[in-house]
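Course exercise 7: structure representation. Students receive a sequence record and must write out the corresponding structure in token form. The form below is the worked example handed out in class, using YncE family protein (350 residues). Read each field label carefully; the graders check that inputs and outputs are placed in the correct fields and that the protein name is recorded exactly as given.

STUDENT ID: A-19
EXERCISE PROTEIN: YncE family protein
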Amino acid sequence: MKVRHTPLPAFVLALAIGVTTGCSTEQPDAAGSSQTATSRPVGVAVSTGPRERLTIDTSPSSVELDDSTGEVYVLASNEILVFEQKSNALINRIRVAPGAEDIAFDRVNRTAWVSGSSRSNAPEDRTVNIVDTQTKRVIGSVEVAYPAIAVGVDPLAHRAFVVNRPDDQTKVPDSRAWLTVFDTRTREEITTIDLPFAAYDIDVDPNTHSVLIAGWFNAALLSAQTLAVDRARSVGSASSSLEAVVDPERGRAYVVSDGAMWTISTGTSASVTEREIDWDEGSMAIGPGSTLLVADYENRGLLVIDPETGSILRRVPVDVAPNSIATTPDRRIAYVSSNPDKALSIIRFE
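STUDENT ANSWER:
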């Protein structure tokens, strides 16, 4: 997933109630550029136009796009705001369980699976809401044994994956979690897999039917079909903070932690490459030309990374403390959410 994770004690998100949304545009600076350029490989387009800013009336926990409709979904506490992509108009508000933080789309069944946790181990934290993406209504739910931390869907394999474990922000978690697998057609549970680390993130490659799971000190790759963990393509870190994302078009998965980046093949090759990097991990998404987009949480920036070298191609200014990134199917538009600023930065790559 694409959300900035805080494995150590996290601050409780402040809830805000308002009635307005708005969109503004930041013009380039005097030199004609709204970002700082560095070197870039031939063929990778990383220049951008003026940054647009969409203000909302609540504090977003994450942002994601429904690739089948192009609509932008912003998760915020106990609701989801849905925006039309071209006009940035708010078209719906969907009430869901408190603590909504992760969403995964099933384009086959035209649904979205939404997990959320108040980080209090309340009974409602174990519920995953299922939203009809056409009517924008909650049409059902499934329940897992522990608070639902993250969710992923492989539409063609007809499977949804829910990472769940006890979640208490006041203490270090136990070194285990569970991955509960559901049939997306019937919503029946298929099985639950015991994971030997405290997982908190999941991303799915629907082309190779690979599931990437990240958590405290570890990341693991497993098959969406056989549910077998590929130990040859699992990685370990000395840090509890890992960020992960898959690039289905290139058949790759990327894991970033503690000054290192691992590139994992999700295809038939079992290759894993590790390289040193000089930037910090943050929420990630795939950008234009299969670049990596990384949220620079401390410096209110969006980094454009060359995945072949791990080098920074460009820094794009965004709002304070960017915590989530989503991109359009063509990777030409990026949406970056800011919880403190109650806003989305909209970056258009040229």
